[in-house]
């Protein structure tokens, strides 16, 4: 398998984590998104939206959207429950991550670390910050009496939400205000770190 990826993206990170946990054989094909490589006809044939990651299978079929890739890879493994309710709860958190976590914490972090925060000051920043606080509050309530997001086990729901969620302090949030989230982050880190480091943004990502 080939993972078309931009390594500083946590969307690609999620997939690399699961593939590592499953011991899958794959190679990474880097995509220089700031040089337009994700907008070429060749790449748009793999993901018509022009975003990473995209997973290319042995038969050259491709799957886009990080959480869809997680579901594909995790099927039949301990990381995706088969029981109907728990499966649906896993999907619930995958949708939650893409609606409430990645567009808020992920975007705020990107703006902060690449010098774009002031450029987007005002309503864009405040709106995302409010929704990020809403997401962290929802996680805090859900994790008060739970070690993980779904049942008693670490699943792709945890991988997906942890990806950008554990980096919220990079854009001004404090986990001291969310003790249950902080405890959950520790449980996840025990299964991941230091084997799956977060890649920093390079000079090509920084604002002029």
Can you tell me about this structure?
The chain is an alpha+beta fold and 208 residues long. The chain folds into 2 domains: 2-77, Glutaredoxin (3-Layer(aba) Sandwich), CATH 3.40.30; 84-192, Up-down Bundle (Glutathione S-transferase Yfyf (Class Pi), Chain A, domain 2), CATH 1.20.1050. It is 49% helix and 7% strand. The chain contains 7 helices and 4 strands. It has helices at 10-22, 41-44, 66-74, 84-113, 123-143, 156-165, 179-192; strands at 2-5, 27-30, 54-56, 62-64. Strands 2-1-3-4 form a 4-stranded mixed sheet, covered by helices on one side. Helix 1 (10-22) links the parallel strand 1 and strand 2 (27-30). Helix 1 packs antiparallel against helix 6 (156-165), helix 4 runs antiparallel to helix 5 (123-143) and helix 4 (84-113) runs parallel beside helix 6. The protein is globular. The model has no long low-confidence stretch (mean pLDDT 96).
Strand and helix map with partners:
Elements: E1 2-5, H1 10-22, E2 27-30, H2 41-44, E3 54-56, E4 62-64, H3 66-74, H4 84-113, H5 123-143, H6 156-165, H7 179-192
Helix pairs in contact: 1-3, 1-6, 4-5, 4-6, 5-7
The total strand number stands at 4
Briefly note the CATH topology name of the largest domain: Glutathione S-transferase Yfyf (Class Pi), Chain A, domain 2
Number of helices: 7
Mean pLDDT: 96
Strand order across the largest sheet:
2-1-3-4
The global form is globular
User: Which regions contain 5 or more consecutive residues with pLDDT less than 50?
Assistant: none
Helix/strand structural class: alpha+beta
Helix content, binned percent: 40-55%
Order of helices and strands: EHEHEEHHHHH
CATH class of the largest domain: Mainly Alpha
Tally of distinct domains: 2
Strand fraction: 5-15%
What is the rounded Rg? 17 Å
Q: What is the annotated CATH architecture of the largest domain?
A: Up-down Bundle
| Distance linking N and C termini | 36 Å
* Largest beta-sheet details: 4 strands, mixed
